[in-house]
Amino acid sequence: MTTVRPCNAIGYAGPSVRVSYAIGALITLLLMGAVMITTYFTGAFKMTLVFGVPFLLILSAVYYGFFRKGRAKASNKALA
Asked: For residue 49, what is the DSSP state?
C-alpha cells in the first residue's frame, strides 16, 4: 500500500518558477486568437465566428459591468 504525504513533508518547496496571471492571460488570448483565425479558413465553422465573437464581446461587457465594478467598489471601501 502506498502512502500519500504532503509535498512539504518530503522537502518539496514547490515550483521554482512563478508565472504571473498576466502572462497566463496573454498566452490564453494568443491561443484563442490562433483558434479563431484557423476557424475562419474552415468553411463549416465560419458561422462560429459570426455568432461567437459578438457573444464573447457581450459576455465580457456583462462581466465588466456587474462583477468588475463591484470588486473595485469593495476594494475602495476596504482601503478607506
From this structure: H
> What are the residues whose beta carbons fall under 8 Å from the beta carbon of 36, sequence distance 6 or more?
49, 52, 53
What's CA 15's distance to the chain center, in Å?
21
The better pLDDT of the pair 20, 33 is held by 33
Cβ atoms within 10 Å, residue 52: 13
Q: Report the C-alpha gap between 25 and 19 in whole angstroms.
A: 11
Report yes or no on 65 lying in a domain.
Answer: yes
Any domain includes 52: yes
User: How much is the mean pLDDT over the chain?
Assistant: 76
Range of the domain at 31: 18-79
